[in-house]
Amino acid sequence: xxxxxxxxxxxxxxxxxxxxxxxxxxxxxxxxxxxxxxxxxxxxxxxxxxxxxxxxxxxxxxxxxxxxxxxxxxxxxxxxxxxxxxxxxxxxxxxxxxxxxxxxxxxxxxxxxxxxxxxxxxxxxxxxxxxxxxxxxxxxxxxxxxxxxxxxxxxxxxxxxxxxxxxxxxxxxxxxxxxxxxxxxxxxxxxxxxxxxxxxxxxxxxxxxxxxxxxxxxxxxxxxxxxxxxxxxxxxxxxxxxxxxxxxxxxxxxxxxxxxxxxxxxxxxxxxxxxxxxxxxxxxxxxxxxxxxxxxxxxxxxxxxxxxxxxxxxxxxxxxxxxxxxxx
Amino acid sequence: xxxxxxxxxxxxxxxxxxxxxxxxxxxxxxxxxxxxxxxxxxxxxxxxxxxxxxxxxxxxxxxxxxxxxxxxxxxxxxxxxxxxxxxxxxxxxxxxxxxxxxxxxxxxxxxxxxxxxxxxxxxxxxxxxxxxxxxxxxxxxxxxxxxxxxxxxxxxxxxxxxxxxxxxxxxxxxxxxxxxxxxxxxxxxxxxxxxxxxxxxxxxxxxxxxxxxxxxxxxxxxxxxxxxxxxxxxxxxxxxxxxxxxxxxxxxxxxxxxxxxxxxxxxxxxxxxxxxxx
Lengths: 328, 278
Description:
The structure holds 2 protein chains of 2 kinds.
Chain A: E1 4-6, E2 13-18, E3 24-29, E4 35-38, E5 44-47, E6 55-60, E7 66-71, E8 75-80, E9 86-91, E10 96-101, E11 107-112, E12 120-126, E13 141-145, E14 152-158, E15 163-168, E16 172-177, E17 182-188, E18 194-199, E19 205-210, E20 214-219, E21 224-230, E22 235-240, E23 246-251, H1 263-266, E24 270-274, E25 280-284, E26 291-296, E27 302-307, E28 312-316, H2 319-323
Antiparallel strand pairs in A: 1-28, 2-3, 3-4, 4-5, 6-7, 7-8, 8-9, 10-11, 11-12, 12-13, 14-15, 15-16, 16-17, 18-19, 19-20, 20-21, 22-23, 23-24, 24-25, 26-27, 27-28
Chain B: E1 3-9, H1 12-17, E2 27-31, E3 34-43, E4 46-55, H2 63-69, E5 89-91, E6 98-99, H3 103-119, H4 150-160, H5 179-183, E7 195-199, H6 207-214, E8 220-227, E9 234-242, H7 245-255, E10 259-260, E11 263-264, E12 266-269
Antiparallel strand pairs in B: 1-4, 2-3, 3-4, 7-9, 7-12, 8-9, 10-11
InterPro entries (chain A): eIF3i, WD40/YVTN_repeat-like_dom_sf, WD40_repeat_dom_sf, WD40_rpt
Keywords (chain A): Cytoplasm, Initiation factor, Protein biosynthesis, Repeat, WD repeat
WD repeats (chain A): 6-47, 48-89, 145-186, 187-228, 284-314
């Protein structure tokens, strides 16, 4: 396969996301402009200019009309996808680490870091009408995370919009009841920060990627641990194929250690595991640094990865991938 | 979109024309479904002509996607022309998914196969080409010693020339000659030892045809058919990686000289690459 290299960012990619149909690919990076691309030919549609610092997270709603982003400039912004104009801006007390649209797209959740004597907090806001007044609007839900060592590092909505799941800096996973605003369940299967969580296609399983060198597959209904995918490097992102029993893991050495290792030792490959047998069956090389975010195209025929090297690589699978049968 | 990139230093005739050092304007030509973009730039003192060929494809999509395709570009891309901007979209080098199969398992299976054959009682199923022993040539205990290739020849040589210590050995029989090319697993990648090359294929051969052709000889690991980048027509050869070596050997034996699409196929061991970019 000949990957497309999307070079629209000057610094490390932090997150990439496809829209629902998969024709657009959104990317955010530690420079201040999220980008949007046509996933088919790698043409850049535009950039969302306005953030003053690193952009940590992005999400797009199911109609591809709005994009939300949160950044290190202590702001949560809402954009119009078609024009790239900023339509809402909410100031936070500290940097916004994660953001996510709810299933209906009527609500959005974002979480802030614990910094400058501010607690880590979870906010849920109403985004049905977005204009300049949204910065004064009261959030629907606001949950401070008191215990000092568990900053939220990844979030997922669950059960349509009834519950949500948060992954934490210390490896814990909490499930919250949205209407009650209370935690209902907590587990701790990881020992270090959970960098990413992603659903499978029908929302029954989710995969977590953790700095403790593993990715784990959980059953969403009772948060039971189903599978563990072990590697020898921190895992920054993991995604589940919508058409096969495959998961892809992206990771590699911490950015701070990269200069002391060559690309060969760094293991900056995307690694494909069989979802059920937990066994690695394939690797794809390409990035010059650790992979920070991976995503499958919704049709399962291509996948993309964004790396610390600032490139997003769009890979279309070759025919042998579709014919590949795992021997067991 | 498939893009080919080609770097050429400009022709001397172009240079004479533009002695002032000004760069010729970039041109865009549309030609039977391809967009050919020609640009000039300086790299140091050298003038460089860049020709990029894009294939224009029409595809059918749902309405929502089609509408999004007509959106105007914005932000940093507001001034980009339609089509990918070479500054932000680069076609990377070809990469392959590297499939991982457990090495130990493969060896074990091969041994099992050998044992099974032996158990069938037919002693001549496996015969070493070096010492005629009851093992694969690549497993021959003599293979790395000076004795390699010795046994048979001594037998043959001694009756005819009892006192002679030196004896002519044809180049292809000398130690290492045939073995290093394809049999010795230490040369080149391990993969190559089970790979065969099929040549003299007709232009319209497809992967499926090749697969049907080689399937009866055993499970295959990988199949590659060389194709022209633009026309997608077969270039006339292909490589097949078998799971097991004896299957590959069998395929060579049976398919070499076999007629396919009115052409006589040439089938041989795949030679290891001269430059290993692994």
